[in-house]
Amino acid sequence: ARGSMRTEGVPFHLVVRSPRPDRVRLLVLADVSLSVRPVTAFTLRLAQAMHGRAHRCRVVAFVDRPVEVTQQLFAGGGDGALARVLAHPAVDLEASSDYGRVFDELLTDHAGLLESRTSVLVVGDGRCNGLPARTDRLADLRRRVHRLAWITPEPERYWQQATCAMPDYAQVCDRVVVARDGAQLLDRAAELGHALR
Questions:
Q1: Which residue among 22, 24, 29, 150 has its CA within the 20 to 30 Å range from the CA of 122?
Q2: β-strand pairing of 147-152 with 66-68
Q3: Residue range 66-71: average pLDDT?
Q4: H and E: helices and strands count for the chain
Q5: Which helix (H) or strand (E) holds 182?
């Protein structure tokens, strides 16, 4: 009672803490077709390192269909990462790249990977080989997630070619980074990290 006289009869104070948002999770969507393998291999090694620190990284590989390869990628360390992903029986290395189908199936068959606290990093050249680009499905994916960034080895001057949908995809993404190898990707790492936060 004596203590409450200092607070005009109120014996306690309410303390309200703001809820802390959950940390962002990362989903790497990696094109493993031949044209993008050098930058994909480096990105997979990067995903290994991130998973080792935070356990919040999932990886989906694709040529014409999305295949979750997180378990295969993190089954062991080192340079065998890409080989283990390419050896997955559901990854068809003989198929033609089909980004539209990949986005569509990712939204339907792998929807549990896409949350409001998930940042998606797409690694690929955006070449659809005459198949529908389905930019609308990429826009649907962007609405479901926290951030969407893209790494492409394709220089911007080649984006206007008939088989490349990068001009349309770039408009949906928060950031597009052009990097042909690991060294160029390291140079743009800060920019990429900021885009995914």
A1: 22
A2: unpaired
A3: 91
A4: 9, 6
A5: helix 182-187
